[in-house]
Specification:
This protein is mostly helical and 123 residues long. Helix content is 59%, strand content 11%. Helix 4 packs across helix 5. It is elongated and about 65 Å long. The longest helix is centred in the C-terminal third of the chain and has 17 residues. The relative contact order is 0.10. The chain has a 3-stranded antiparallel beta sheet with strand order 1-3-2.
């Protein structure tokens, strides 16, 4: 190894390819934000909530009923989903209804589901 960078065991590097791809890499802040987004999907309770909201806009009490959980637990997870801009809410009187923020969320879930289904991924 040289410094902090691992050294390739081959003398010949494909400089043009390396430079082209290096130039296409997003900046660190975008990569960090993307990693944070995918961390949000790393909790099965949040995934369950998103699946519920794929079907219908619902209030915290109804989501808790569907999932057999406390409203406190659901509220905690909804806060994280709101911060990640995966869900949005609207008020109707004293009731707050939650829904997916946009079609990108549905697309991410659909593509993830398709990926694990077609690849036979066992997690």
């Amino acid at each position: 190894m040289t410094g902090d960078m691992p050294c390739c065991e081959y003398i010949h590097a494909h400089e043009a390819s390396v430079e082209r791809v290096r130039g296409l890499m997003p900046d660190e802040s975008k990569l960090f934000d993307l990693a944070e987004l995918f961390k949000t999907f790393g909790d099965s309770t949040r995934i369950k909530i998103l699946y519920v909201l794929l079907e219908e806009e619902m209030c915290v009490c109804d989501i808790a009923q569907v999932l057999g959980m406390t409203t406190s637990a659901i509220s905690h997870q909804l806060k994280q989903l709101k911060q990640a801009k995966l869900v949005k809410f609207r008020r109707d009187g004293k009731t707050v209804f939650y829904s997916l923020d946009d079609d990108h969320v549905r697309s991410i879930i659909d593509q993830g589901t398709e990926h694990i289904s077609e690849r036979g991924v066992k997690i």
